[in-house]
Amino acid sequence: MRGYPVGHVPYLRNPSLCCKCEVETGAHARARSCPAFRLCSNGFTVTEPLQLPALHASHAGTWLREGSGQTRGVSKGDAVMAAADTPLLMVNAPLVATRLGYPDLSGLDLLELYAFVRPAKFCVPTAKGLAEAVGLPPPESDADTPAMLQRAAARLMETCRSDDWAEREGAWSTLQSLTRLRWPWAPLLREHVRKPERAEKWLFSRLPEWEEAPERPQPRQIKLSGDEVTAQLDHLTGEGSERREGQRHFASEAASIFAPREKRSAPHLLLAQAGTGIGKTLGYLAPASLWSHAAGGTVWVSTFTKNLQRQLRQESGRAWPARRSDGSRPVVVRKGRENYLCLLNLEDALQGGFAGRPAILAQLVARWAAYSADGDMIGGDLPGWLGTLFRKRGIAALTDQRGECIYAGCPHYRKCFIERSVRSAAQADLVIANHALVMINAARARDAASVPRRIVFDEGHHVFDAADSTFAAALTGRETIELRRWILGPERKNRGRRRGLAARLADVSSYDEAGGAAIEAAIEAARVLPSDGWLERMAEGLPDGPVEALLYQVRAATYARDESGGQEAGYGIETEAAQLPGELVEAAGHSLSALNEIRMPLVKLAGRLEAVMEAAPDWLDAQGRARIEGARHSLAWRIDLLAAWIALLDRLGGPVDERFVDWLMVERNDSREFDTGIQRRWLDPMEPFARTVLDTAHGVMLTSATLADRHEDGPDWEGAIAKSGAAHTDAKPLLVNAESPFDYANRAEVLIVTDIKRGDLAGLAGAYARIIEKSGGGVLGLFTAIRRLRAVHGRIADRLAREGLPLYAQHVDPIDTGTLTDIFRDDPAASLLGTDALRDGVDVPGESLRCVVMEQVPWPRPTILHRARRSAAAASGSTGQAFDDAIIRARLAQAFGRLIRSKDDRGHFIVLSPAFPSRLKSVFPVGTPIIRLTLDEALARLSGAQDGTDASVETDVREDENSGAFET
Ligand code: SF4
User: Are residues 671 and 545 in the same domain?
Assistant: First the structure.
């Protein structure tokens, strides 16, 4: 018999009968002989299922349950008809719609109800996840699911009636608005959400105000001793924990970046290869916490994935309390401002800025905001699935994407999540951020206290790519239209309160004539930038203004030179910015003049703002100063942006600048064009990284399990140093290598499958299906092309679902990547297909991930940027093949790294390609068996792993250099 904690509903297999005593639930409270009765009599009311029809659709079929009847399998057509007749209970309506092939499906989505009842609470958006979140046993089969949905709905309604409902405040008021918006759940909830006796606190009055704090003094100059660091590490790992020598060594070396800097522009630089499982997070948090405490300074830890940020937030709890005695937070997560809810945008949305379904989303976001820890909408406590339920870009419209913030001019300034986060970070001991934000803060922080000076780049193998995007310049339609909106503000009615430059600086223009004239001039000049409808005008050959004319020429040249022969139809195309047509060069000249016309008044305006600040007129109170400071900051950003565009155009048709790679591009997705323009990347982005980050820092550490390539004789430090930026500074990098303690030889196998031919899509799909069946799920499938991923998923998802093996896929399921990973982690029978983002963004220890399958060797895409860097590598003494190999090896190492996340994990890494070059095998940890075999033999090995026997196939262990098994 199942044991249920007090307060749990008995498991109702048949929803009208108790599973323990088979007494009808209505009579249950009277059934004193029932073993579950004691639980019920502890004040718990048995949940009656909600008597509404419920629908569940998977790849295996569709099930419908009438309000109080039986569950039956139905056709997709019947399900769509039933949904059209009456609102059906379902989980994740967009996903159900995809399964039914009927995009307009709507109903009573339980996830929306969950978002209302339990805002800012985690829930995996599946029937199983929902059941767990509301304290019900998960359904045992697809056919059981509709009945569970009825019980889950009833359970959530019951929460609304309960006196203990923690999120009651604000619910009644929100429900009134949702009723006006005809939210399908509103009439059902009305009788459960009681009207408060006194007016309840609404979001904007409920949120706390942030406090101003004096600037932190500069940190003391101290050196940490090895003994102190290891003692702190022991303290953090806890008494009785296993002593790991690799971790102690790593921690002692990590302390070196906190020593006083000896020379200007030469930070202490540590490159640390830290094998999976050495415990590197606590390894660097030990010296970081010691130093921040003793020196009174801030340490920045930068990650590439949100997953690691979450983990760091948890682990930091061992070194710091949640709050200091004064109530402030010693550990703060900082993200780019586009991640946070902008309260002003939300208020606009609530007051009519959003209509229809987006207006309902705004109400649910307001519920969440009132209970959110930090207002982080992307990867914080807002469920990642909430936005996708509404199938629009509503979430993005609620953040400050365009830098339109009006700072102290905003009525919510003192409660603003972004402002609170910036201020908290300036006072924090530990700031958890991402690579791009660290680079941006180093380049243009608001004040000296916000410049990162002691930085740990975890997932350090991504620093190069992050620098590559951060220091790039893109003169494209989307970018230029953003600038136009920032300067001009809304040009149509009903576009909310987003403001242009004139509205943001109205008081300056009325006080300072020259400043006012500069604003006018900038507005006039910005009218030549692309405006709404520019993409249509491109297609019709009717560009408007000099910049659109340039984009038109760029698009024409890109299509004219397209060499893909239609193979890339539907995806982006690009061409070199060389030997350009005269019309394009001429259009570039006109655009350059137009951009200069915008930049000059902005520069003048920046000067006037500085003068106003210095003159400090009477009207300039603290709030006014803060607003002008904010305007100066965002103005400087736009002036730099314009300078970068002007420099880019200046070079078109002229002599090449060897430091940059420029190209023309048209971006498309699913055959729909959405941008066109000119891109510029640094040939070596670590050059600007060194200038902005390393020059200003005192200590920097780059660490990762795959920081350096692995050669037969150890890590390839040369490549890691080249990608650290050290060559562009006086810093002398210190190198550390801590090997993984995992027993790869006995817990992992690499299987190279030789009988799936390249291009054989049917064979590839069949191989995936058979591997997933043999493993019983738990497979992470990695693809290098979205087309192949979709084709494989389309061929096998139904077949697998019928066997109880759900298959999810990035680029197919309407679910964000983080949520897909949560679903995969939550269900050991599930498998997940994806591309780059999953290659090293997935941390799934335990049963849920037992097998990683790569569809082929992950060759780099032959882009213009790749070709330029490959040529540069060849010119500097390396070879093109070595350059490509380094990329492939890094990708293989990252993908393999998904497999074994804890010492108890075991699994298989399968590459479905006979063309696996033998020179790549050293990328796998020493001792890992690497076997070249047919698919049937690989499946036999998977069965062996399942039943504990060892299928016998000849093994080629990495040390066996002469086996010849890896011929290309
Ligand atoms: S201060 Fe800026 S970002 Fe914050 S709520 Fe106001 S407008 Fe939005």
Answer: yes
